[in-house]
Amino acid sequence: xxxxxxxxxxxxxxxxxxxxxxxxxxxxxxxxxxxxxxxxxxxxxxxxxxxxxxxxxxxxxxxxxxxxxxxxxxxxxxxxxxxxxxxxxxxxxxxxxxxxxxxxxxxxxxxxxxxxxxxxxxxxxxxxxxxxxxxxxxxxxxxxxxxxxxxxx
Length: 153
What we know:
- With 153 residues, this protein is of the alpha+beta class.
- Helices cover 45% and strands 21% of the residues.
- The chain has helices spanning 2-7, 9-27, 31-47, 52-78; strands spanning 96-101, 109-113, 116-122, 133-140, 143-148.
- A 5-stranded mixed beta barrel has the order 1-2-3-5-4.
- Helix 3 runs antiparallel to helix 4.
- The chain is rod-shaped.
């Protein structure tokens, strides 16, 4: 078995390439894709009957070049507005919700936004009654700051 693999190293590089691509699908970081490209380059070099050390060198060089050249291009292409896209709790800012427990100056209340309940305080440190529509203007840890949406909007 070992003799077969040493005489057919392209199978090992193919296995590395396929494994890296499968793991890339689950991670989405595009680093493993670079290793898959390095392994693909090594497959080509292996078919030219080169020594193993040269195959490994080609793998390393192609992977490093991919990380610095291919990965940024792929990220820009697939995520053009990545820096402008808020995620997780930061995406709440600007969203609207309904007060489910009254907000008072001396006590926090709760708002419901898209089915989730958040502890809330009023922006102007005022009171907001239960059932009022509010907009989230800031977030501090797990507490959101809200303002009342005027009825004419």
